[in-house]
Amino acid sequence: MSKIVITGYGVAVPGSMNSIQFEKQLQAGSHGITVIQDDLLTKNKLLSLGFIDTQVYSRKEKAYKRYPNISKAQITTAEEAVQMAGIDFTRKNIGVFIGTSLGGTEGYENSIALSSRGNYKVFPTFACGHTNYHSTASAISNHFNITGITKTVSTGCTAGLEALEDASLYIKAGQIDSAIVGGVDMANTASLIYAFSKIRTLPLGHHIEVSGLPFSKNSKGFVPAEGSATIVIEKEEDAIKRGATIYAEVVDTKSNNDGFGVFGSDLEGNRMYQLCREVVKDRTPDYVNSQALGLHANDIVESLTHERLFQNSIPITSIKSMVGHAFGASGLIQLVASIIGMEKNFIPFTTRTDKKGFEDLQIIDKLEKSETSEVLITSHGYGGNNAATYIRKY
């Protein structure tokens, strides 16, 4: 079986518009999180959110004027990944696989505001495109003139890694030779803030010092964020044949579900542990790039899984304190961070944490210059899906 390798990547997160800026942000440990105080959304209470720079989705092409911002952001990170990969689509049977959890809530909110008031005359003719989850995958196919397999994966916060899982399966089955794999979410709107505030998972009324702190019982909730990441994957022999730079091998990617329904999850992390054990097998990663995001129940699952799988013998880290949690894009953002760390010989670290309640974990909380060659990336979220990816430096 041919190896699947990564030959390009692109990223946009709060604080960075591309992978070059992201590398600097990861090494500096600086966050791109904004504290807002808005009477309409938060009734004058503080709330921390992560926004990407508007330049990421402010495209000049007339053809994209009416595209939703989420699709334009994905095009931008895909351009970076494709340029890095140097891939010739005319000689490739290529697929497009995009993961998103919320699909961009801005389109829904704008449409509902008009339709609920009966404003048919001013209702936009492009509303369908702004409310369709598949718009972003379609936008990528159009932008690069790809007419093959084009899929949207929407499985919650694991969507980006599950898009990678699906794309890998298509390559292994021989249906495609390579794929553009992306994850994107831009949903910092009223409905999201209200929804997560109702279940008390947002740090509403709290300052940044206690907002989105991974591995800390003092964290008052997670920081919702916008974000986009894209990678190009292909068969190893094809990449070698065309002289491409190979950044990492995708050793394995798998997913499962807790089976607790819409409003529940396995707080003991049994399914997450089983999944990671299947992906890791008898290997030992240099560290785990964790999905921990400052929700105590979520971070406990990460801790329990780590303890059972590795007996806390290897380091663990989370970048969510820098960039917030970008839902369906989060897993691929973690993956890109790990690839950059492999290239530049450092481990992306967990900033802004006091490690309270997680003292037994080897949490990397400062910049460590270190050669790394194997990383486990974890992701799980609302709806009970779990996903894990194991990558190896090429």
TrEMBL record:
<comment type="similarity">
    <text>Belongs to the thiolase-like superfamily. Beta-ketoacyl-ACP synthases family.</text>
</comment>
<keyword id="KW-0808">Transferase</keyword>
<dbReference type="Pfam" id="PF02801">
    <property type="entry name" value="Ketoacyl-synt_C"/>
</dbReference>
<feature type="domain" description="Ketosynthase family 3 (KS3)">
    <location>
        <begin position="1"/>
        <end position="393"/>
    </location>
</feature>
<dbReference type="InterPro" id="IPR020841">
    <property type="entry name" value="PKS_Beta-ketoAc_synthase_dom"/>
</dbReference>
<dbReference type="InterPro" id="IPR018201">
    <property type="entry name" value="Ketoacyl_synth_AS"/>
</dbReference>
<dbReference type="InterPro" id="IPR014031">
    <property type="entry name" value="Ketoacyl_synth_C"/>
</dbReference>
<dbReference type="InterPro" id="IPR014030">
    <property type="entry name" value="Ketoacyl_synth_N"/>
</dbReference>
<dbReference type="Pfam" id="PF00109">
    <property type="entry name" value="ketoacyl-synt"/>
</dbReference>
<protein>
    <submittedName>
        <fullName>Beta-ketoacyl synthase N-terminal-like domain-containing protein</fullName>
    </submittedName>
</protein>
<dbReference type="InterPro" id="IPR000794">
    <property type="entry name" value="Beta-ketoacyl_synthase"/>
</dbReference>
<dbReference type="InterPro" id="IPR016039">
    <property type="entry name" value="Thiolase-like"/>
</dbReference>
